[in-house]
Amino acid sequence: DTGVSQDPRHKITKRGQNVTFRCDPISEHNRLYWYRQTLGQGPEFLTYFQNEAQLEKSRLLSDRFSAERPKGSFSTLEIQRTEQGDSAMYLCASSYGEDGGYTFGSGTRLTVV
Amino acid sequence: GDSVTQMEGPVTLSEEAFLTINCTYTATGYPSLFWYVQYPGEGLQLLLKATKADDKGSNKGFEATYRKETTSFHLEKGSVQVSDSAVYFCALSDRTGANSKLTFGKGITLSVRP
Hints:
heterodimer; A: 113 residues; mainly beta; 7-stranded mixed beta sheet; 4-stranded antiparallel beta sheet; 11 strands; B: 114 residues; 0% helix; globular
């Protein structure tokens, strides 16, 4: 068990470009979550998958954001036409069951310049 | 909607001092409560949790008791160490929903001086 892996660790992109992040959850975990964390704030929920099904999306997830989890394994989060306000740490977490005791990845820090 | 309020920080303590970090919550259902910790350069780690009223979660010398009557989940440690320096987040999970998403407080930075 190598924990939850996120790639890349850091991403700097120009405004208007598209970016894609990857998350590899713990293999036996059926639930996968994406959160966004800005400086001085706690993580905010973005979206949730149970196996391959995306079951909930936050209002924070504008139409420029899309997430997938093909085959219920790894997940990708894509941001199209990035804006400076998208600069944040994007966190992935996985769990098995409903007790909320997730395992978080180290995150991908996005900087939009 | 659900929310978590943490005391303002940062907090700076000397080694072996007593620590209390306040956390209160608002929830429509009957949530589970958590403390997560983020050490410098690392991801969020679950520190402790409690799932029902009067439960006490504990780990690494830290404790927190689920107080339904005061809607609180304050974190305490009797004697802090330099290695406890980190950001601490209080969070809740509303179990009435299907997805167990977490609602976090803003976090508080703890610095412990030798």
